Amino acid sequence: MSQEPPQRPRADQFPEQQPIKYGDVFNVTGELASQPIKPRDAALMQAKENQALGQTQKGSPAAVMQSAAAVNTATGLVHRDDISDIARNQGVSISESKVGGNRVITESIGSQVVEEFVEPDVPMNDPGLVLDKNAITIGEALEASALTRAGDKPLDHSDAAAIQAAEMRATGKNQTEPGGLGAIAQSAATRNSRTMPDLQKTTLADVVSGAREKLGADKAVTREDAEGVIGAELRNKADMRTTPGGVAGSMAAAATLNQKTSIMVSKQINEDRVLKTECL
Fold it and tell me: How confident is residue 265, by pLDDT bands cut at 50, 70 and 90?
């Protein structure tokens, strides 16, 4: 019995590989949605984020674009020097606005918004001001978050990331201390992600209560500390919004109070100096 020769697969049986487009990863429409993400687009957004935010944030539009552009380049679908017409002609941008006490950061390609996130506003004052000896410390700010409504929520990975960042700011070390507060938080967040009933999950308050004793060191909260913790929490939140009353919010509030106190102390010192000069 003769056998039929094997048939060669037709080209239409295997659809041609498509590059990753803006519409695949961002909520955009029209021409931009159909455009492949190209390396120089990603480089432009990275430069904008570095300029506006100090660094490329994990999970940010620049990070997403870099990953997509790398895949598109590796598969030969775009060239490493390619740039889309929209990025070339309309550019990429990052803008900041104030809504209430929050900063709203908006990242756009051309006229379309690809990401918008909200973070608590930490006023920028003179960094040379000396913080008062009674300034709020990182440990105290962490403990304060346990007393808010956020303290009752199950601790998640964004909380753990913020706690880890706060611990590193407090200790001055660029790593999580083994057995320290950050490690406890990360372990609890991982355990919570595998536990179904909320009542069995570890809460934020469970971890940060007594934070001053759990930290290897402590220091007064500065604007830079607050921004570092805010960034850590945002990078691990799908909606890119800090938790009201959570770790980032408490750090921002503490930094603001410390700045106001330092201004008052500095003003009092200057007034005392003037008074002493007049008495001479």
Answer: very low
Sign of the C-alpha dihedral computed for residues 139, 141, 144 and 148 taken in this order: negative
- Count, residues in the chain: 280
pLDDT in tens, 167-196: 999 988 877 778 899 999 999 999 998 877
How many Å apart are CA 79 and CA 7, to the nearest integer? Answer: 35
| Gap between the Cα atoms of 114 and 59, Å rounded | 12
Long-range contacts of 237-240 (CB under 8 A, 24+ apart): 237/158, 239/117, 240/59, 240/115, 240/116, 240/117, 240/118
pLDDT of residue 262: 58
